[in-house]
Write a structure and sequence with these properties.
Length: about 375
């Protein structure tokens, strides 16, 4: 209950009692004893009211202290919870910001890599757009493949043939088949026009142009790098892109058949690698055949050495047999000596008499067991 309302009620009660007492006092003012009794009762009632007011005040103070303490405890708990929650929120925010900074750093590095890759792609496009640079790019890739597979004496870069033409690479194979020339150039402009064609008509024109350029390039390789009596009856056209190689075999079968007829074999990096491994196996086989006479002579000398070794082993075996016989004879002699010693140990002698002990020496007598 609200303490202010309780105080108002007590004040109203006191006013009512005062009014009653005043009325009774006015009515009975002539009665002395009754007035004295009423005054005593009023005094008792005032004292009781004062005691009740004191008790109520103490209870109100106790309740006020309890309420204040409970409020302080609840406020303290609420403050602690709010502080913990703020601390947790701060920690989570710090962690989230740290992760965000790390991710932003990763994104920044990825952006730098993308920028560098874009620069490299632009540089590659510039290389492929320039015919001379594109030829150098194909030659570098061709050089890397050849140097990584074949021995140094099996190829020559930028070799000049008898007709004055210079091949990008010449595989120095023995006859047959003979040296094989490799050309690393390719009409990339026609292929790029085919890739960037917007409609079917432009695509058809680009396909015709590319087919014509390929036919001319194949015939040019056959005329320049297939020299009778000097090179093999075939040559290789190296394409530095697997995509171009797949496009030719998928959509330009007539060009591929023309290359077969002209004996100009079209190779990509993968197929050239297989071809070079085959060339290495052929060179190894040729080298083995060249060394066959040397190997046979070495085998003959090895057989002679084995024969002499067998003869010497036989002599050593005879020496061991003689030594074995000598050891056997020595063993027989030692056995005889051992048996004679055992028989000597079996001999016993008689005791001489006391009278003749000093004059006659004892005679030995063999006593059998």
């Amino acid at each position: 209950m609200d303490p202010s309302l309780l105080l108002v009620a007590l004040a109203a009660l006191a006013i009512a009692l005062g009014a009653v007492a005043a009325a009774l006092f006015a009515r009975d003012r002539n009665a002395g004893d009754a007035s004295a009794e009423l005054s005593g009762r009023l005094s008792q009632m005032a004292e009781s009211q004062a005691a009740v007011q004191a008790q109520l005040a103490e209870r109100l103070q106790a309740q006020e202290r309890a309420v204040t303490k409970a409020l302080e405890e609840r406020l303290g708990d609420l403050s602690k919870r709010v502080g913990d929650r703020l601390q947790e929120t701060s920690t989570q925010s710090h962690t989230a910001l740290t992760d965000l900074r790390e991710r932003l750093a990763v994104i920044d590095r990825a952006q730098k890599n993308i920028t560098e890759l874009s620069t490299q792609v632009v540089g590659l496009q510039d290389i492929l757009a320039n015919k001379q640079a594109r030829g150098s790019f194909g030659e570098i890739q061709l050089n890397d493949l050849v140097e990584g597979i074949l021995p140094p004496n099996a190829y020559v870069f930028q070799a000049t043939l008898g007709n004055g033409k210079r091949a990008d690479c010449l595989l120095t194979l023995p006859n047959p088949p003979g040296p094989i020339a490799i050309d690393s150039k390719f009409p990339l402009e026609s292929y790029q026009a085919l890739r960037t064609a917007g409609d079917e008509a432009a695509r058809l024109r680009a396909r015709r142009t590319l087919a014509a350029d390929l036919r001319a390039h194949i015939q040019d390789i056959a005329a320049r790098y297939i020299v009778a009596g000097e090179t093999a009856d075939s040559a290789l056209m190296f394409l530095p892109s697997e995509a171009v190689y797949a496009e030719l075999h998928a959509n330009f079968r007539d060009v591929v058949e023309l290359s077969y007829k002209a004996r100009v074999w079209i190779v990509s990096p993968t197929t050239l690698m297989a071809t070079l491994n085959t060339v290495r196996a052929v060179l190894k086989d040729v080298h083995m055949r060249e060394q066959a006479g040397v190997i046979q002579a070495e085998i003959a000398r090895l057989i002679g050495d084995v024969g002499r070794l067998d003869e010497r082993v036989g002599k050593l075996q005879r020496h061991f047999e003689l030594a074995n016989e000598d050891l056997r004879q020595i063993r027989i002699s030692s056995d005889k000596i051992t048996r004679r010693g055992e028989r000597i140990e079996e001999l016993e002698f008689e005791e001489p008499s006391v009278a003749t002990e000093a004059l006659v020496p004892p005679k030995p007598r063999l006593v059998k067991d």
